[in-house]
Design goal:
Elements lengths: L8 E6 L6 H11 L4 E6 L2 H8 L7 H9 L6 E4 L7 H7 L3 E4 L7 H10 L5 E4 L11 H12 L2
Parallel strand pairs: 1-2, 1-4, 2-3, 4-5
């Protein structure tokens, strides 16, 4: 009888506001690290704190869009503030993939995960697609320049 291998769960987090091709490339690369891709979407309050702006789309809409992407298996909305380690623990990832433009110190994150009993590998995804078309802030800037001036 063939023994079933454990599925490798990959976790990513992000704002994912104004979904663009850079997000798709990131999600695809993250999915390639395992069998299941779980996404934690930043809570609206977290967006306000980190980006110092209102989210363009509410978290529920961003989550729904992500659920429609073929690389994504599960989506959760995070809690306001910092990383919800209890949610991460419940998800039980084998790998946490960090985006190329996310400002995380991978070593500090690993240390914080270990403190909470989470033994996941942390991998930074390199830029595969680097373009102004793949940055939400640049997209917003182009919209303003095109339609508001």
């Amino acid at each position: 009888m063939e023994e079933k291998r454990k599925k490798i769960r990959v976790l990513v987090g992000g704002v994912f506001d104004i979904l663009h091709v850079g997000h798709i490339h990131f999600l695809k690369q993250a999915k390639e690290l395992g069998d299941e891709l779980v996404v934690i979407v930043a809570h609206d309050e977290t967006v306000r704190m980190q980006k110092r702006r209102e989210p363009i789309n509410p978290a529920e809409d961003r989550a729904e869009l992500l659920r429609a992407i073929r690389y994504v298996d599960e989506v959760y909305i995070g809690t306001p503030g910092t990383i919800d380690m209890e949610l991460v623990k419940r998800i039980d990832p084998d790998v946490i993939a960090i985006g190329p433009d996310q400002f995380f110190n991978c070593e500090k994150l690993k240390e914080e995960l270990r403190k909470h009993g989470i033994n996941a590998e942390v991998i930074r995804i390199p830029y595969l697609y680097k373009s102004d078309r793949a940055k939400t802030s640049k997209i917003i800037q182009r919209i303003v320049e095109t339609f508001c001036e």
